[in-house]
Every structure is written in C-alpha cells, then in structure tokens.
Amino acid sequence: MSRNELVGRDREVALLRAAVESVADGRGGSLWIDGEPGVGKTSLLALVPEFAAGCHVMAGRASEHSAVFPLRVLLDTVAGHPPGSGPIVDPVAADAERVLLEIDRWCASGPVVVCVDDLQWADDASLAVWARLAEATRQLPLLLIGAARSVPIRADVLRLSRALSGSGTTMLTLEPLDHAAAVAVVERLLAARPSRSVEDLVRQAGGNPLYLRVLVEALLLDCGITVADGVATAAAPATPTPPTLVTAIGARLGFLTTTALQTLRLAAVLGPEFRLTHLALLSDRPMATLAEVVEEGLAAGVLTEAGSALAFRHALIHRVSYESMPEAVTAALHERAARMLALAGEPDEDVAAHLLAAPDADARWVADWLDRASPGLLARSPGGAVTLLERIRAGAAGSRLDHHLAEGLFRLGRYAEIEPLVWPRLVEARRSAEVGPLTWRLAYTQRLLGRLERALEVLDDVLRHASLDERWRARLAALRANVLMGLGRPTEAVDAATDARAAGEGAGDRTAIGWAMFTWAMAAAVHGEDHAAAVSAAETASLVVGDDPETTELRLLLLLNRASGTWNLGRYDESRRLVGEAFALAERAGAPHRMASLRVLAAEMRFHEGAWDDALTELESGTDVPTQNPTRVMLYGIRALIAVHRDEPDDGVGDIPNHSLRMADNLLTARALTMDRDGQPQRALAAFLELLDPGSTLEFPDLTLDKCLWLTHAVRIAAGLGARPVVVAAARACSAAAAAQHLPAIAAAAQLCRGLADDDADLVLAAADAFGRQLPLFAATARENAAAMLATADPARSRVALAEAVATYSDLGATWDIRRADARLRKAGIRRGARGSRRRSATGWESLTPTERTVARLVAQGHSNPDIAVALYLSRNTVQTHVSHILGKLSCHSRREVAAHVATEPVTSS
Questions:
Q1: Cα separation values, 643 from 276, 500, 653, 674, 779, Å
Q2: Which of the four CATH numbers 3.40.50.880, 1.10.10.10, 1.20.1530.20, 3.90.76.10 does domain 845-904 have?
Q3: pLDDT tens digits along 764-783
Q4: Residue 273: what are its φ and ψ, rounded to 5°?
Q5: How does DSSP classify residue 698?
Q6: Rounded to 5 degrees, what angle do the CA atoms 436, 437, 439 make?
Q7: pTM of the entire structure?
Q8: What fold is seen in the domain 10-174?
Q9: Rounded CA gap, 195 and 683, in Å?
Q10: What are the angstrom distances between the C-alpha of 636 and each of 358, 506, 633, 644, 683?
C-alpha cells in the first residue's frame, strides 16, 4: 500500500505505533479505526508488521460474503485452516471457542496482534467474538485492531463500536485530509509541485486519499495534467472530473483494454481476492492471456498481489467492477463459478457462496450437489446451507432433502419449524430410509422444547407403523425410554431402556446402547435411589459410546451424570476431574446448553465446599449460558444463597418464571432464608415446608441430597419456634432418605435432624464432623446448634462449639450467620469475648482467594488460560475471570506484571 495515503496522518501513525509497542511490552489493548471508504484505514493497518517486531501478527479482511458463513473471517485470520473432524454440537459456538482458544495459546508464547479490515461486512458471530476478544485484551498480551467503514451505517456494527468505546477501546476516526495534506499527497504522486489549477482539482476530492490517487492517475492518462520544470499544471480534461469516488474509479477503469476490463469483471465475481486458476476456470481463457491481463491490472494499480493469490487494490475497485455488470449476468456467472469450483473439488463453502448469489440456478443440479455437500456444509456453515436448502425445496427437488433441512434447522436452534417440515414427510414415507433420522430429529427437538407427550406420540406412531432397520429401531426405542423418564414414568422407562439396550446390542449400535444406559442410570439415581449403580452404569455407557463425534451430546450428558453422582457419593476429587473433562468437551464442541448445566454444577460444588468466591466467579463467567436457558434460575439461586448468608442484598430473589420452577430450589431456599434473616421465622418455615413438604402431610417426600441439606435449615427454624411435630417428622423423613440412598451428606443431615429432634448435642456435633471440610456451612450450622443446646448444661463446650462455628462462618464471609449465632447464644448467656474482624483485604496478595493464588502462580509460570483450565478442572472462561480479578486486586496491567508480583511472594504463602 502506498504511503502517499498516510501523508498528514502523523498523529494516527504515532498512536498505532504506541499501541503495538505497548503489546510488545506485555500490555494488551484494543483499537477501532473507522472512516469513509478510501480514507486510509487499510494503509494504516499495513504499517502494523513494520512496528510489530517480536509480535505474532495475524491479519484478515472481511468481505461482502462474510455474513453468509459465520466466523469465516476470524477463522481464516486466526486459525488459518478448517477444523478437523471432531465432536460438534453447535458449529458456530465451537468455532467461536476455537478462535478464542487459538488466541489464548498464541498469547501464552508471546505478544499477539490481530488486525481485521472491513469489519462492516463481518457476520454477527464474528462481531460477538470480537467483543469477547476485546475483553480478553485486559489480561492477555493481545492487541486487537479492527477497521470498518463509517458508511453505510450497520446497526450491529454501530452497537459493537459503542460497546467497545465504553469499555476502554481506543476509538480512532480517520477524517478527510486537510487541504495542505491533500496537496502534499498530490505532490508525491506527481513528483512535482502542484500549481493553483491542480490545487483546484485537489479540493474536489474532499480530502480522500484514494480519490486523490485515482483522480490524478486518470487525469495523467487523459492528458489532464502536464508537468514542466517541476510544476504540475492542470489542463482542461477530455472528460468532466468525476463527482464522486465511485465514478472516479469507474473512469479510471475505463483506461484498461477491453480484454482486461472484461476479465477483471469476471474476477470480481470471484470476490475481492481470487486465485488465477479459478479465474481461468470461469473465463475459459488461456493462462497466457490471463497473465497479460494481470500484468496490466498490476501496472494500472487496479490489482495487487496477496500471497499466492491476487486481490483488487481496494474494495471499492472490486465493487465498481462487480456492479458494472447487470444482475442477471452476475447471477449466471455465479452459477457457472459454482459449477466450475465444485468440479475442481474446491471447498463446499466457496461453492455455496456462489450459489447463494445465483437464486435462479438449475435446481436439479443444486439439489444433487446439496445432497452430497450438506453434511459437511451443515457442520461448518449451517446458516448458508439452510438458506440453500429452503430455496431449493420448493423447486424440482421437492422434499428429498428434508432430512438435511431438518438437521440444519436443529443446528440453528429453529426447533419449532422442524415438526411442520418433518411430520408430513413421516406420514407419507413410512418405508423410506429417511424415516429413522427424521423421527429422531423430530422427537428429540420436541423433548428439548419440553413437549414430552408429543415426543412420545411421534415415537410410538413410527415404531408401530414405519419400516425401520434394526439400528434406527433400537435408537428410537432408547430415546422413547428417555422421554418416559422425563414424563415421570420411571418403571416404564427402566423396562423400555432394558429392551432398547438389548436391541442396540443386537444391532451393534453404540448410540442406542448409550442412550438406553443413560436413561437407566437416571432412573437408578432419581427413583431407584441406587447412586453407586447409577454412576457405574453411566461409566459403562461412556465406555460403550467412546469418542464418536455423533454422540457428543450424549457424552456430555453422561459426564454430567457421573460428575453429579460421584459428588453425591462423596468422591469429590473424581467429581472435580469429571467436571473439568466435561468443560473441555463442551467448549470444544460448542454446547452452550450443556455449558449452562455445567456452570450450575460447578457453582453448586464450589458453594457447598465453601469456596463461595469461586462460586461467584463461575456465575460471573456465565456469559456462555443462553438467556432463555431455564438453568439460569439455578445460577441466580446460588448467588442469592451467598448473598443472604453474607447479609448482602440480591435482586435474584424475585419472581420465578413458570418454565423455571422445577429448577428453582436454590432460589426458593434463598427466599426462605431471607425471611428468617429479616426476623420472620414463621414465614420462613412456611416457605421451607412449601418447598420440602408440598402436600402439607409432614411426610417430606422425594428428598434429594440438596433437599436434605435445606431441610436442616427448616428444622433449626422449627426447633426455635417450638414446632416439634415438624422437627420430628423431618428427622424421620431425612433418616429414611439416608437409609435408602446411602449418601454421606444425607447421612450427616439425618444425624443433625435427629440430634435436634432428640435434643442430643453429641449427635449434632457428630453430624458436624460428618459434614467436615466438604460441607463447611452445614458443619458450622451444626456446631452453632450444638452450642445453643449445650449453653446451660455445659457452657465451656458451648463456647468451643460457638467459636468453631463462627471461625468457619468468618472464613466463608457469612456475616448473617455470625450475627444469628451470636444473638442465639447471647440469650443463653454465652459470649465469644473479643471479636476482631477477619475480613480479607480488598487489594494485594492477601486479598486473593486460594484459587486465585494458584491461578496467579500458573500465570507466572507462563501457562495459557486453556492450560490452567485443564489443570484446575475449570472452564477457560472461568480462568479468564479469575485472571481479571487477579489483575485488579494486584493493580497489575499485564500477565508479565503478575509474574513479577508472584516472584516477590513467599512460596509457602497460600
């Protein structure tokens, strides 16, 4: 790119240089450059490699076709090659994670600069990832430079630029050059001093460097400027001066030979950047002729080299060349290009891009191509594939591609559109080979939509009346068993799962066997109350399923099942490892809905373990949990629980959406505890009973592990109110649950409830020991209860129990619990004596949580966020949030500064 277009840009160049030098020193940053077309954005970006010694530079450029294929521009820029065959649930989410992961790993080995030009053409997913990368620059040695046209205005690009501006990104608008700078540009172009007549022409360019260049070059060719004695003089040109940049470019192209102009128009169909071999296929011209055209285009400044390819020197030159042809001609050329590229074995995405621009392409040929290409295209670019499939469905191809379209709609989350598409096809084609996969997709989406009765109807109808091979009959039977489980029919579900497993083994189908065993494991844990058998079944199912990409969703479900089950069984280290494995798979596969469930499980584990700050970090990292996902209410519930114990306000304790009620136990518990905290124990007990004893029978049915833990709060409140029937009934129900389920946490809760019912302080203290370090809140609550029970009979033991309870509460930051315990015991004459604050510092090394210190040390050792996530069984997002907290608490601006700070701390500090 000519430096003429950077004349008068000293301030902008200095700002760019400073940003690059800063990232080379380890400090990340974000720069957004905007301005009108031709004002010099691309020229400024071209300087980056010159300034970026010691940095890894990745550069890319969006095009008008970028919006068709999500994340294509960032994948090309950052990843550089298509992904291999791997586990994919949501290809867009998976590719987004892949971009972020690549950046993280590059940043672990040194400073990185990512530049993307023409972001006004980028797709929505790329813009969303750009925003996440901009946030990451606060902790990574990453400089993010984006350039976009200021016109035409695109709403989502405008929203992104405003969001970036508000979060620390440097905004740089390239204004048109002033008159003196414009004259200097022309003087360089002409190698002569402009006369007054030339300066008059300069004013017409409005300070746009590209317009100036095109105008001057056109006038030179048209003999509109003469140079004599070092002075350039403007004569009356043969044609009027073009009034706009676009018309100026059109006029400039008019000086090319007819062959060159026609060939470059064909090249424009291939895009802003093209390969000579592709142009040869499209133009059907010999390579010798094309070589002459290329030489002419390079000499005229219309083309430029782009590695092994060629490119139009400016996007506007490409646009003018493309738009100079009638739409019917360009559409026909796109169809021809698609056929030629397909025949040459070029990537399906390139073929699809041309077909999308050829709405009247031969439907039969397109349908044949889609039938072959759809599986791969749907995995990488579902949006473009679905557009083509929907377009072709009304044509001669009819509905023979419906199974591909159903898959595409599923990948795009357009679940409600699948039944109107699939059900008529199932009714009319009972013997088609498509019946199995179409039925699976329809029933599975009905299950996801919560329409379990409809899912069962579909499965029953097809299994009774359709012709299915052994494999699909086994799979649909396994899915039917899972639907029965969701409908609360566990006995039928177990029988159906047993039959489906046998059918799957007979057909040799691992998917059918895996789903059947998963359903059996669910039934064993939830209704059979045999958690060890459930975990064992899930482990066996995982081995059966293996790592087949087709079973990724099932593998994630099994990992969640095993992680939850092992935690319930008290196998805490194993559970943490499984959660880490599930996080890694969910991120790699792009599974936001499963990531939501993982966030909940990880946050609940951190809450129960007493690592409340880590639980809050999980919640803060939950940007990958879809807003409409009902598990968000579970995340809100955990935050609300921590808030009430820490005596803090929390907006999460509010109305609960109806579709989320079944996941609202944490939030309902927080609501009840808030009533107790606010001096309304009767209302608190009523709220607990509504949650734990919905029939008001004092039988407390269906007690899960969590409900048994919440029951201990209800029993404490009931005992304080003298509601002995509630205390006794709750103790009986919890003991029955402990005997049936054989889970250590339920056994400890039963001990606590029985101790309160029998006024047995020793049993309550035994419960505290049983809760131990894995459930510190409940251990402390047990000791608080024991202290109150011992206050009269044994004041010394009471004080010890109170002190131990308060010490744990203090470690948790449970301000309300401390206040409540002190108040209860003060009434009985027990006081703790001097009570100094143990509040953690807000800044410095001592302010870091144990997990943050571990992360800081790993950062200091040079590990990337993804590597730290694997080591600590966390998600990459959670590690990123931890690093952000560390930077803030240590007043550091880079990972390098964190490393320097860690070096000053004693190794034993923890």
A1: 64, 46, 10, 9, 19
A2: 1.10.10.10
A3: 999 999 999 999 999 999 99
A4: -125, 140
A5: S
A6: 65
A7: 0.81
A8: Rossmann fold (3.40.50)
A9: 90
A10: 48, 45, 5, 12, 22
